[in-house]
Amino acid sequence: MSTWPLPLLHALGVLLGWLTWLLSPTYRRRFAENARQAGYRFAQVRRAVAESGKLLAETPRLWFGRMPHIEWERDELISELRAQGRGIVFLTPHLGCFEVTAQAYAARFGRITVLYRPARKAWLQELVATSRNRPNMAAVPTTLAGVRQMLRALRAGEAVGLLPDQVPPRGLGVWAPFFGRDAYTMTLSARLVQQTGAAVLLVWGERLPRGRGYRVRVQPLEGDLAADPATAAAQVNAAMERLVRAGHAQYLWGYARYKQPREEAVS
Prior knowledge:
Elements: H1 6-23, H2 25-37, H3 42-45, H4 47-64, E1 70-73, H5 76-84, E2 88-91, H6 98-108, E3 112-116, H7 122-132, E4 137-141, H8 144-155, E5 159-162, E6 173-178, E7 181-186, H9 188-196, E8 199-207, E9 214-220, H10 229-246
Parallel strand pairs: 1-9, 2-5, 2-8, 3-4, 3-5
Antiparallel strand pairs: 6-7, 8-9
Helix pairs in contact: 1-4, 8-9
């Protein structure tokens, strides 16, 4: 599948998305509840059912195939920060194709370190780790060792990327509002900025129509992150809300954003 053309993969993804919708009552319920929490009717976000399927179908191409066509929006924000020698913290919600943003940055601008949650199955851990390590791109797990690698990268003036709407293990986040409901939110992005003086940019990969590729949209964060973890988490969630509203048809509404954090050993 990594050799298939993107239009074919996305066509398959549409089928996968709607099959998942039809076969999983839990998915349908969570999708509807999350959209309703954000103030959307199903008719307004129904396209996201197909887009979620595209996320699955395009993964082999992004992990093992050649880079698809990429367009950039406001990439001058990146160039300015790189010219200053500052590290960059990229924040990307579960919106559009979040795999492609880091790959596009690595291919054009240089080294980036991305945070990911290791799979629970041993065989899948190796597959995911291998697929996400590409030229100029290093994937590190959600452990203290992974965080240390991100700190080193930022202090060297490099970039890091993370999904701040991913639910962290208990003890590594705070409760903060997301679309009017408290969600357990990681505090890592604020800690990275405070310890390194890095800049924060918001980014997401919009799927272009008919499998033509992706548009990487870059935006600045409004204001500086607060020193207080709860305030900073609320700022980050508000920023993620703005991105989601701008691209609500490609948001992963079925993601369990409001789940309870699990107990997990962090080493």
